[in-house]
Amino acid sequence: MPKDAPPNGDALLEGLPVGSSQQVSEMQAKLHRWAAARKDRRFDDVFNLVHDPATLKMAWWRVEANRGARTAGSDGLTPARIEAEIGVARFLEDLRSAIKSGEFRPQPVRERKIPKPGGSGKVRRLGIPTVADRVVQAALKLVLEPIFEADFEPVSYGFRPERRAHDAIAEIHFYGTRGYRWVLDADIEACFDSIDHSALMERVRGRIKDKRVLRLIKAFLKAGVLTELGTVSEMRSGTPQGGILSPLLANIALSTLDEHMTAPWRPGGVMSTEMRRRRRAWKGLPVWRFVRFADDFVVLARGDSADDIEVLREEISQVLKPMGLRLSEAKTRVVHMEEGFDFLGFHIRWGRKRGTDKWYVYTFVADRPLKAVKAKIRTMTPRTSQQDLRDVLERINRLVRGWTAYFRHAVASQTFAHLRQFIWWRIVRMMRHRHRWAWKDVRRWLTGPTGKWKPIAADGIEMFNPAAVTIVRYRYRGERIPNPWAQAA
Fold first, then answer.
1. Tell me: the pLDDT tens digits for 403-422?
2. Which of 124, 117, 129 is nearest to 71 (CA)?
3. How many helices and strands (H and E) does the chain possess?
4. What are the φ/ψ torsions at residue 239 (nearest 5 degrees)?
5. Where is the Reverse transcriptase domain (predicted)?
6. What is the rounded CA–CA span in Å between residue 295 and residue 297?
7. CB-based contacts of 405: which residues, under 8 Å, 6+ apart?
8. Would you tell me how many other CB atoms lie within 10 Å of the CB of residue 212?
9. Quick one: which of 266, 264, 261 has its CA closest to 297?
């Protein structure tokens, strides 16, 4: 079996990446090419692609490989149980028959509340679909995503192929160094919970004409929520966070904002060239750049006054209103880059380089993610813990490696060094309390015959050193971000 196939031996999935994966990729490339060639094209016969065996196999593979695969939906089934008790081949064949015949009905998503980061006490509501619903949503996404990607604007970076948060930060950095230093730092209030279903479906119908696919999408939107109290509540708006299809639907809804804000930058627009932008600035007219990641976005404006960006704030509110969305009053503010603002875990600030008269846009690690990772490490290293040190080190290493990989493009050397000291002391204090050690016992444990300090280690597992992570500048890719389906075509 190819190395990227799912870890099971079911005959239905044998050769998936070689056969089904290639077939699905070719299908996606064609859909994307046709959608890009004609912006007014509406796709009429795509339902057959959704329940195609190759699409369902690829959808299953993605669901099973997902980190949340072990979590059951409202029916209590997980991919592992389906494989052991039903068999993947039979499960997918039954699911395909139900979709083809029109008998398939999405089940209510299982509600799960998790605390929002930052210690605000607020919770985020996640909706966990059944495995069958996840597979069908994944199949829908495989078909719909390449079509709508042809329409999405390049200033949108969240939940899109080949794009990441670092690209959004790099764009802010790029335009911030070019004078765009007034910032509307905005957040949409309960975006996933508030999207108007009728307005969203109208956007989807702009590209999809197949009524069977439209019925499937609407059925997922109206499936309802199985609350933690065991009751089913109706969904009148929104698309549940946790669903595979939800991020794509949110991007479709928010593309109306992207289109409005980027219209002046298109060829022939009033901001389409640098000369036109300068001419607007000379006339005292606003010049701005829009950057969005999911429901978080910023508007960067060039000039000496915040008045222009305040006008844009009201304009954006009016654009969002038909979609049932509104800006969060608590999280939306106008700032100057010299004051600094947080975005996607980074703190971005326009400041003077120490010892010089030169000013630059700097990207640091924001306070909140640092506090969050330290809080997680505290929970892993309580003084009364009797966990094996090897297990503790493995868990901390896994957490810190991912965290530093995300922030290694920031000005983070001192932050990483501080984190290394924090982890070291947490482990040392835990071990001192466990063994009732004095400081001389710690020295005996962590120094060699020459008196030189050794890294903390247990059974061949050594504490990961965040301070050793190399800081690398993330290069702004702009229009050079690859499109997987354009390349495949």
1. 999 999 999 999 999 999 99
2. 129
3. 18, 13
4. -130, 120
5. 95-348
6. 7
7. 469
8. 15
9. 261
Integer Cα distance of 199 and 211 in angstroms: 17
Total residues found in the chain within this entry: 489
Cβ contacts of residue 173 below 8 Å, gap of 6+? 348, 361, 363, 476
Residue position matching structure tokens 């924001």: 366
Tokens 């000369």 map to which residue? 275
Lowest mean pLDDT: which of 6-10, 184-188, 467-471? Answer: 6-10
Helices in 184-295 by DSSP H: which ranges? 191-194, 197-205, 211-221, 246-262, 274-282
| 113 against 390, higher pLDDT | 390
Distance of alpha carbon 221 from alpha carbon 107, whole angstroms: 11
Tokens representing 270? 């009033």
User: Residues 163, 169, 174, 178: what is their CA dihedral angle, to the nearest 10 degrees?
Assistant: 140
What are the structure tokens assigned to 68, written together?
Answer: 């949340």
Burial-class residue 17 by CB neighbours within 10 Å (0-12, 13-18, 19+): middle
Residue 119 has pLDDT above 70, yes or no: no
Q: What is the pLDDT of residue 2?
A: 38
